[in-house]
Amino acid sequence: MSDQIRVLIVDDDPLVRSGLAMLLGGADSIRIVGEAADGKEVPAAVDGFRPDVVLMDIRMPEVDGLTATQRLRKRAKPPAVIVLTTFDTDEMVFTALRHGADGFLLKDTPPDEIIRAIGLVAAGEAMLSPTVTRQVLDRLSDGPGGERASAREAIESLTDREREVATALGQGYSNQQIADRLHMSLATVKAYVSRLLDKLDAENRVQIALIARDAGLT
Question: Which residues have a Cβ under 8 Å from the Cβ of 38 and sit 6 or more positions away?
């Protein structure tokens, strides 16, 4: 199917890779295009399989998921990255989000939720529920003073409407929820998000939300 989301699974545990491939392979909307056993294999795998979304293990023996994610973000058109982890308290997960990952999932997340998350990030949406997003951002936004000052300076360049959208992103709302709350069309919200990515020099929605939080908008 031409509209299937192409997914690359990266994990050093072959049982995890085969388990995820089996669980996700039955979804009509998803096509597992390949696997990689370490972060060092990711560049070649992305070149060869052209995934839309990468499910990235955070802890791997040679090149970890954080480093692999950072390298992917330097590409002109990188795939979306969902970090996989065993514990939601893993600090590397939060570092990964700040450095360009599109979100994270626990490895014991139910298959239907993983499928939903893949669909959301492939469409450029937030892959976390508002509650979880706010919990994550609460921890991530406790940055140093210099970071907060930089965020406030970046926010000052925004129009009032752009600031409203950035605030809503910082609160963890999806595009549709933002459209409903701000009485805008979905297409207009997407246009504002694209504009915010450019003006704030952000990699993805998560980083916009972090800047909004660091700047004190939420």
Answer: 10, 12, 60, 61, 62, 63
Confidence at 5, pLDDT banded by 50, 70, 90: very high
Reduced to 3 states (helix: H, G, I; strand: E, B; else coil), residue 10 is strand
Alpha helices in the chain (DSSP H): 14-25, 42-49, 65-73, 91-98, 111-122, 130-140, 145-155, 160-170, 175-182, 186-199, 205-214
Q: Would you call 6 helix, strand, or coil by DSSP?
A: strand
CB distance 21 to 118 below 8 Å? no
Checking if the pLDDT of 109 tops 90, the result is no
Overall fold of domain 5-127: Rossmann fold (3.40.50)
Question: SS3 for 83?
Answer: strand
DSSP code string of 17-38: HHHHHHHHHT-TTEEEEEEESS
Q: How far apart are CA 161 and CA 34, in angstroms?
A: 41
The domain defined by 139-214 carries CATH number 1.10.1270.20: no
Task: Give the pLDDT band of residue 97 (cuts 50, 70, 90).
Answer: confident
pLDDT at 123 over 60: yes
pTM above threshold 0.85? no
Integer Cα distance of 50 and 27 in angstroms: 19
